[in-house]
Amino acid sequence: MSQGSPSHRRSEDVARLRERYGEPSEMTLDVPMREWEFNLLRFSKTDGRYRDATILIPFEGKLVCIVKHSYPEGVARPPSGGVVPGEPLDAAAEREAYEETGLKVRITDYLLRVSCHFTLGTHATPSPHALAEASRRGRSDEWVFDSLARFAAETPPKADEPEYWESHVFWAVPQGGALEPRDTNEIKAVVLLSPEELEGAVHARMRAADIGGFAYRVALQEAALRAAREKGLLPG
Hints:
Elements: H1 8-21, E1 25-33, H2 35-44, E2 51-56, E3 58-59, E4 62-68, E5 80-82, H3 89-101, E6 103-120, H4 128-136, H5 144-154, E7 163-177, E8 187-193, H6 195-208, H7 212-230
Parallel strand pairs: 1-6, 2-7
Antiparallel strand pairs: 2-5, 3-4, 4-8, 6-7
Helix pairs in contact: 6-7
């Protein structure tokens, strides 16, 4: 069974989410990546993760967003993180929200389910963003970029073998805590952005970065905001 094929446990978990939090919008994407980020994605999946939980959190009339140390100036996005194999998606969402924003949250709505096939694009020198992301993923006894280089050399990417990824987006309301990231190794700051600020200047900067992962996030976030408006969670 490939990672793109739903397991019985995963299908049961998604069915539970639909019953508890409502039917999500569905979206399928095909996104090309530069070679360095395609290899980084493949490398990050070696621990069995191929899904993330993304969370829209309203706070003081805006949305809670995070800034990573590696992000270009002016880029922020809603919190998200990889789902540990076997971990319920809503539990992963609540865990990631707390780790990245410092807020304890309660999920109320299942907004969006995205299935994506990332494909190999062009070769390019890794950007500062890529280098920073890679260095964060290392073990303490070696530079991760060396590990990534060995991985790419030993298992070179193939243009005809896309990498599957899923994102599940939830709406969650704060239940306590403080706006301060717990995972300071990854998260630089927590910021509040209006949906219009996110869809406008921030998404423009993400598109301008010409990074496949950012393009994916922009498409996902725009669809999630549409779903939130359709459910009456945001002004239409």
